[in-house]
Amino acid sequence: MAARVTFLLVILVVLPFPSHCADPDPLQDFCVAILNSTSTSLNGFPCKPASEVTSEDFFFDGFTKEGNTDNALGFSPTFGNVLSFPGLNTLGIAMNRVDYAPGGLNPPHSHPRATESGVVIKGKLFVGFLTTNNVLYSKVLTVGQMFVVPRGLVHFQMNVGKEKAMTITAFNSHLPGAVILANTLFGSNPPIPDDVLTKAFQVEASVIDGIKAKFGA
């Protein structure tokens, strides 16, 4: 009996579970997304009929141009997810190109549906993430060095070099999502009540209102 129980436990450990994946496993070779469909579909968009699929559905040139970093944060993400590259639909993968001006910041944010990995293509970046125990893991990375951010954890990247910087990042979801902390807390619609934020941050309402004003809330 003990041997049988041990055997079953081993099987449970080594068998792949769908819940381990960020996106469900596909049940067909491909499912090029119909982005403007009004049909309801779970964990993906409806598929374009195979007879209408062309080679162009499997290629994406969005990363060939540098992003415009002329903004308050000095960074620009170019998204290679299912919304811009419908051929990724149901395949459980996406990529981004992120450009940084000197001093540019990809502000603290999280991806609720994916782990992120990335490589520095140009420049020098300070990369960090925080655990659920409020521990910061961080390092300054240069060209060719790689990083990983576990799914759902808050993280950031900042260009600490004197020149422009650029990364290519990858996700194990065709639509990883992004929760940008400052925008979420101070720019939501409808806005989070001041009473909540003043108590959470232990500051006066005028401070909260001043921050909200910067995010259009």
Task: Give structural notes.
There is one protein chain. This protein is of the alpha+beta class. The chain has helices at residues 2-14, 181-186, 194-201, 205-214, and strands spanning 75-80, 94-100, 105-110, 116-122, 125-130, 136-141, 146-149, 155-159, 165-171, 179-180. The strands form two sheets. It has a five-stranded antiparallel sheet with strand order 1-2-9-4-7, with no helix packed on it. It has a five-stranded antiparallel sheet with strand order 6-5-8-3-10. A hairpin with a 5-residue loop joins strand 5 (125-130) and strand 6 (136-141). The longest helix has 13 residues, at 2-14. It starts with a helix and ends with a helix. The model is unreliable at 5-19 (pLDDT under 50).
Summarize this structure as a short list of keywords or feature phrases.
five-stranded antiparallel sheet, 217 residues, globular, alpha+beta, 10 strands
Q: Poorly predicted ranges (pLDDT <50, ≥5 residues)?
A: 5-19
Q: Please tally the β strands and state the result.
A: 10
Structural class, judged by helices and strands?
A: alpha+beta
Mean pLDDT: 90
Summarize the structure.
The chain has 217 residues and is an alpha+beta fold. It contains four helices and ten strands; from the N terminus they run αββββββββββααα.
Chart the SSEs and their pairings.
Blueprint: H1 2-14, E1 75-80, E2 94-100, E3 105-110, E4 116-122, E5 125-130, E6 136-141, E7 146-149, E8 155-159, E9 165-171, E10 179-180, H2 181-186, H3 194-201, H4 205-214
Antiparallel strand pairs: 1-2, 2-9, 3-8, 3-10, 4-7, 4-9, 5-6, 5-8
Helix pairs in contact: 3-4
